[in-house]
Specification:
5 helices; 9 strands; 31% helix; alpha/beta; 182 residues; 9-stranded mixed β-sheet
Length: 182
Amino acid sequence: MSEYLVVCAVAGEARYVPAGVPLVVTGVGKTAAAVAVSRALAGRDTSDVVVLNVGTTGALRDGLSGLFLPSTVINHDVNAEAVRAIGLDPQDELHIEGGDGTVLASGDVFVTDPVVRQRLAERAHLVDMEAYGVVYACREYGVPVRVVKHVSDSADEAALDWPALVDASAKVLGEWVSDYVR
């Protein structure tokens, strides 16, 4: 029997996660997410732990809405080409078991600029700020992870309304967690 650990960036995204399900609120960004997940996993028996990274996401392509379970997360704000040019592996693309085929761009940039959105849409369907850090930490600890994202906005100027939109996404995410952990 698996032990689930729900991970999200801010408390509002987990407002409807069932009581009793362990929860880690990481804070915003990849670094905060990686550190918080590492703290939660360090020094414990992780043989039966499954991390469920739930949260909101921006749609990089028109017409995307609803719930997604990405199969790939990319670190979009690292200069991977330059790092490869000097002979190092930037590990900028991580694969996630059991995903739905979507690609999630993850970075420390809150995307509202149409030029940035268009550039990211060439490589990904969705964008967030924490999933890469969560997946990276889980991989380092050998812990399976599911990434579950609900589209809250279109990663454009409307994303600035995120505080008013997060509750609708939180309800859907809470229902998904309830169904998954049963």
